[in-house]
Amino acid sequence: MITYIDLPTNEDEETRLREYLEDVQPEDIAEYVSGLEDREEQIALIKFLEPEDAAIVFFELDDFSLVSDVLLSLPRWQAMAIATEIPNDDAADLLADMPDKARGRVLALFDDEARADIIELLGYEADTAGGLMTTEFVVVPAFVTAQKAIEMMRAFAPDAETIYYVYVIDGNSHLVGILSLRELIIAGPETAIADIMQTNVMSVNVQDDQEEIADLMTKYNFLAVPVVDDEEHIIGIITVDDIVDVIHEEATEDIYRMAGINESEDDEEPSVKGAYLARMPWLLITIFGELGSGIVLSGFQARLEQVVALAIFIPLLTGVAGNVGTQSSTVTVRGLAMGTLESGHALRIILRETTIGLALGVSVGLIVGGIGSFWQFPALGLAVGLTLVLNNLMASFMGTLVPLTFKRINVDPAVASAPFITTVVDITGLLNYTLIAAAILNI
Amino acid sequence: MITYIDLPTNEDEETRLREYLEDVQPEDIAEYVSGLEDREEQIALIKFLEPEDAAIVFFELDDFSLVSDVLLSLPRWQAMAIATEIPNDDAADLLADMPDKARGRVLALFDDEARADIIELLGYEADTAGGLMTTEFVVVPAFVTAQKAIEMMRAFAPDAETIYYVYVIDGNSHLVGILSLRELIIAGPETAIADIMQTNVMSVNVQDDQEEIADLMTKYNFLAVPVVDDEEHIIGIITVDDIVDVIHEEATEDIYRMAGINESEDDEEPSVKGAYLARMPWLLITIFGELGSGIVLSGFQARLEQVVALAIFIPLLTGVAGNVGTQSSTVTVRGLAMGTLESGHALRIILRETTIGLALGVSVGLIVGGIGSFWQFPALGLAVGLTLVLNNLMASFMGTLVPLTFKRINVDPAVASAPFITTVVDITGLLNYTLIAAAILNI
């Protein structure tokens, strides 16, 4: 971590700063730059970076206005040197949000080929294969030798973001094979590529969703996966480091959704208004659900008037059932997302969770039933204890059934979030309570 | 996906099966094998795999008893051929859980060097750098040329799990530099390694925790990171595909913890007893917390007797406050974990969340206050509405303050889970309700 950098005031200091910055990870420079309040100061510092480090800082900060401010205030040759170092996919991400005028001027800093690629990439949705892929990759024809392929790569490589896999094409630019750089290097120089390549190449379509791609790359441990168009021409690759970010993003989305926050609040720091809109729908569900709980209690009002001590245990009953329901739904939702649970084994999953729910219910019922008997009176303790057993059984059942059902009808199981499950189990739990209490207390 | 494989009954069918299996991804074979009920059938199928595919199937299935059953029932030459293909780190993971006797017999299938490495790896904790790393990596001395280095790699590479980075050492085996395979390939053949290597090498200590390593590799977009001992000797590397699994694992752990499930339920399918023990502690917190809510209500009992309709809104009040508190705590806990929020900016984070909480509170208060006025009577509607505004403000405040405080005192903020926050806001929320209701209803 960088704690403080003094901007240089003479040439000696400039040289020392450049030398210092060369030895620091550009990601750490990005962190430091993001902490600077003053735009002028940010620009001044970035000017002293090597072009390739500046490109990484741009990617890390992900701030298109900083990028246009820096590039458009630098001498043209220096701006072009930095632009050359920005991978096309990162450039497209940065340019996507730029106002049209700045975008045109920044695009002019790239060479013709890169510009054409960037404009193409700008046409894809950010969360699809097209939005994730880079157009910089290495292809070789199937008929050349390993030696020749290495020579071709020496010529290509300065433009390629990653060369860890080599893609093999036929005369029509169709993807026909793949080999790792490792396989290429250890092959005899005169071996034909066609003889050492693997022909079962897995690829993704340019319109595929990023979550599917992340799952695929996780499952098969790929470092990169080729992206093809509808005619099976290779048009890009997606590398595992971009997937690492997708995995974090998707986990955050799931975590948020489970807590009752819509994915629109997925940005790093959305506006208060954005956060309000992302959270309010779930509160509305809670309100109208819990008005249902209120209706259950108001039907019980005459009996509550007789034994008002019944009300004392309401928060405990709803709290515990909500807790147990959320535990079961979380395990089920996450298991379905990770592929460790399969919705085909629904019966086994439900049986397992309800067994756990029953065990928890009996324990909790005994403890609270005992406390309730001494604190208030035995019949009330018994009613509360029995209700807890039944409620926990039911909460674990609902917590498992609801996400499994959503999965079956192709709704994201994460919608079976804590607010949703909690509300459902509150209503049914209070209904159990009123019925059990009425029977046992004979009211 | 493979739907069905018939085991061969003659040589023709055997050849066809072998050819078919060569064209299928070993991860898909693993999936199919895991679905077979019969151990004999599993073994029979694995026997037809290429040794390197069998090794991947073993890794994917992560089932040590299958590994020993297969390896010890195969002819020794075939078992040794498979063993050669298992990367040392995977082998150590598989052997870790094997009974001593089987482990000794399986270890005997590896060559002397691999066996020594595996035994060393078995000594490290699974969730540390030592447990994640492989001992197969490529080092070259700083003084050789690029051409010579490529030749050395040709000789080494068949044993190296990944050669995407080349590590450079001095005469004392200290790590002094790094270069990517790409940089090596595009360098002129006669260039000295010392001239093209990067000298600011980031490494991790063999005892570092896997979560720290995942964060480091995510931040710096590394494909691999070297592992050093306390004397800075390079002893292994960790590759990004192992880190992808760690990221999924850590996200699951956080999700579980936030839902009130201890990390011991992190296994794919723990026993019912394990799940019970992982969830019960949080239920106990809920019980004793909500008994606190009960004490608040019992102090209010005389007034509840006068206006029993007050009880109707208790589930709504606790449900909404729990919901808002969980939303704020989730955003804070995840933001701290991802590094998008910094505990140093506590005041700004709290201000933002309480602003959102207040906005949500006013909306919810107006809606429920209005409904309450018509459904019951205006003074009760007013009391419930005002309580909702105050409770939501307080819930968002607590939901933010608690994880920030935990972070400050070095407790995992994820401990500020839904059950914990819900219970805290229930008690204070009901206290607010009793005070506001007593004042407005003049009881």
From TrEMBL, chains A, B:
Transmembrane segments: 280-300, 307-325, 358-377, 383-406, 418-441
Keywords, alphabetical: CBS domain, Cell membrane, Magnesium, Membrane, Metal-binding, Transmembrane, Transmembrane helix, Transport
Pfam families assigned to the protein according to its UniProt record, in alphabetical order: CBS, MgtE, MgtE_N
CBS domain sequence ranges: 133-196, 197-253
Protein localization: Cell membrane; Membrane
Highest taxon in the source lineage: Bacteria
Gene3D superfamilies named in the record: CBS-domain, MgtE N-terminal domain-like, SLC41 divalent cation transporters, integral membrane domain
Membrane topology: Multi-pass membrane protein
Family named by the database record: Belongs to the SLC41A transporter family.
Role, per record: Acts as a magnesium transporter.
Quaternary structure annotation from Swiss-Prot or TrEMBL: Homodimer.
Name of the protein this chain belongs to: Magnesium transporter MgtE
Organism listed in the record: Peptococcus simiae
Gene this chain is encoded by: mgtE
